Amino acid sequence: QVQLVESGGGLVQPGGSLRLSCAASGRIFSIDNMAWYRRAPGEPLELVAAYGNAGTTSYADSVKGRFTISRDNTKNTTSLQMNDLKPEDSAVYYCNARVKSTIWVNVWGQGTQVTVSS
Predict the structure, then answer these.
(1) β strands within 1-66, DSSP E
(2) Which of 26, 29, 67, 115 lies 20 to 30 Å from 42 when distance is taken between CA atoms?
(3) pLDDT at 66
């Protein structure tokens, strides 16, 4: 059984910053891609940022230059540093990882709410 646990969401004013963290636990042999998604009310799930096993990163156009994804392979964690937050960044943010346990599995965290409002 593999689990992802997120932390770090909350309420922040426009222009502020938040850092989301995600830790994987359980029977883990290796982790391929780790990523952050978000879903705003009435909107589809959106890929925000991804960090591949080879060290490559990618970002949604809407967050480029403001968000930074990082990863610590020794701790099986990923973080999303979010700067210059805007009201349109408000959403539930989900951590996702493709994990080699006894088999390869695609795992999701429970989600953490980010609200950007004055």
Answers:
(1) 2-7, 10-12, 18-26, 30-39, 46-51, 57-59
(2) 67
(3) 98
